[in-house]
Amino acid sequence: MTYQDDNIFAKVLRCELPSEQVYEDDQTLVIMDIMPRADGHMLVIPKSPARNMLDATNDQLAACLATVQIVSHAALKAFDAQGITLQQFNEAAGGQEVFHLHFHVLPRHDGDKLRAPGNMEDMKVIKANADKIRAALASG
Fold this sequence. Notes:
Elements: H1 8-13, E1 21-24, E2 28-32, E3 42-46, H2 58-78, E4 83-87, E5 103-108, H3 123-139
Antiparallel strand pairs: 1-2, 2-3, 3-5, 4-5
């Protein structure tokens, strides 16, 4: 399969769709998931085209994972979480729905359960959670 540049994340990267951004560097962008399965659910995406990890370059994968680590530390602090769930899906049979490489970062607490997928969150809640993560990033 080839990369299709009409996917949601490509549109976010081109500023054709709004997003709540929490972190950015030269190679990656981190946005809040609008259908979060946990408070603080973020998506880490490369700025360059990659359908998924099966066709991503080593540099794209390394950049994404470095960013995953940075925002995971911030999420632990921001949500007083005890752990992080990292999810990454490849191709439709593997559960991928948006065909631009992305990593789900979900702060977790002992004994919590993930919310059901596909439920939109109020944008005020998403922004408040993004503010917590940005504050944690700023404080180191």
